[in-house]
Amino acid sequence: xxxxxxxxxxxxxxxxxxxxxxxxxxxxxxxxxxxxxxxxxxxxxxxxxxxxxxxxxxxxxxxxxxxxxxxxxxxxxxxxxxxxxxxxxxxxxxxxxxxxxxxxxxxxxxxxxxxxxxxxxxxxxxxxxxxxxxxxxxxxxxxxxxxxxxxxxxxxxxxxxxxxxxxxxxxxxxxxxxxxxxxxxxxxxxxxxxxxxxxxxxxxxxxxxxxxxxxxxxxxxxxxxxxxxxxxxxxxxxxxxxxxxxxxxxxxxx
Length: 254
Fold this sequence. Notes:
Layout: E1 2-8, H1 12-22, E2 30-36, H2 40-48, E3 53-57, H3 67-83, E4 88-91, E5 96-98, H4 102-113, E6 122-124, E7 137-141, E8 149-152, H5 153-163, H6 168-174, H7 179-190, E9 194-197, E10 202-204, H8 215-221, E11 237-244
Parallel strand pairs: 1-2, 1-4, 2-3, 6-9, 7-11
Antiparallel strand pairs: 4-8, 5-10, 6-8, 7-9
Helix pairs in contact: 1-2, 6-7
């Protein structure tokens, strides 16, 4: 089973836009699962959506945004997906914008690597240094990027599930904490690899009232980022097997 997961916070305008974007894709091969904070406007949007959503409620939601709450909400939906039979998951967030071929890339990852799922731990959709003109190009990386990623169940249990709440390696390698820094720290500690498109297939649109991302950070990192808004590619190619080793650009605390 293939799944799509996303957490839902407290920003209904971004969520409405995201659901509208998602509804434009043929997602009949996927089960779509979300985990919602205690936000009545957002929950109402989910319940009224025509998408076939499985809607979870985050346990013990305080009704207020927090770093720990966001961490719990993401884990809640991801753990549910893999505990209930997902073999491959596409993880998004409720303030993303998506390329027209984002699920063609996800499907290509699945078909290409389903018999060798631990070739990479994460199969990325984002690229914080998105560049060039080759929309079919992919590259390997030795870091984790959290703004749109896929993984097989084997990668979930080997890396993500084990390290989600353990900040040991985040502190050791980056002096930081947070779910994405925890995963990035595990990459650095164990030499894990990922793969991503040269030109990003997701972008972060959540400029206002984010849990971690400030307006200044958003404008610096995402406002002028090149990402695919027009091209539809169905076949992809790895252009460089030497993994890039950059410090991850994440929206958690540092």
